[in-house]
Amino acid sequence: MVYYFTSTISDPPSTIYLGKDKFENEELIKYGWEEDFHADNLSSAHIYLRLAPGQSWKDIPAVLVEDCAQLTKANSIEGNKRDNVTVIYTPWSNLKKDGSMAVGQVSFHDPKKTTRILLPTRINATINRLTKTRTEIPPPASSEHLLAERDAHLAELRKVTNAELQKRKKEEARLAKERREEKARKERDWEELYGEEAVNGEGRANNQEGFDEDDFM
Fold first, then answer.
1. pLDDT reported for residue 212
2. Which ranges of the chain does DSSP label H, i.e. alpha helix?
3. Greater confidence, 160 or 206?
4. How far is CA 105 from CA 62, 96, 207, in A?
5. Collapsing DSSP states into helix, strand and coil, what is residue 166?
6. H or E stretch including 214?
7. pTM, entire model
8. Cα 90 to Cα 21, 103, 125, 171, distances in angstroms
9. Which of 55, 44, 43 is nearest to 15 (CA)?
10. Residue 152, Cβ neighbours under 10 Å: how many?
């Protein structure tokens, strides 16, 4: 079961989702492409935040980070009972998973590419607001949905990348055409001043003094 929530604490609204248990966590790890929130040194659900196009994990609004962190704390059996719980978050691409790890367990490729937020206490108003928006997709449809969403996201990224590549190629072609036209213009101007032979680097026009070599014979 994958649970989806909508946070309206910032604009535009954001999608947050999590797995019901550690087995769903594995599916989220497998098909993820967003930011991952997890209670530091405690067992908890992995909370994923879907970023807006062009948004970086480093510029998530603080109020949205708080929403995700509160949801993470609330979905940790031990962390939900404690005060002063630290929640850690990182890009999905920084999650490290290998065969030696338990189901639902992850580490990080680069521990420095993480951010921690301290939650002094649970804020029930935040949890209640998010819970009212909750929808769910049961397995196996949840896995199919995650895969379809990820593939659509990757397809959109490829579309954007190709569009940027085509734009860059057009700009390079435009600049190359301008350089060719500028070169041709200079050659025409030179030819008008000194004649065709000067353009080819030959003839008397290249003799700056204007003397004929025969004058010195």
1. 52
2. 22-31, 62-74, 124-131, 141-194, 196-199
3. 160
4. 26, 9, 81
5. helix
6. none
7. 0.65
8. 20, 19, 25, 36
9. 55
10. 10
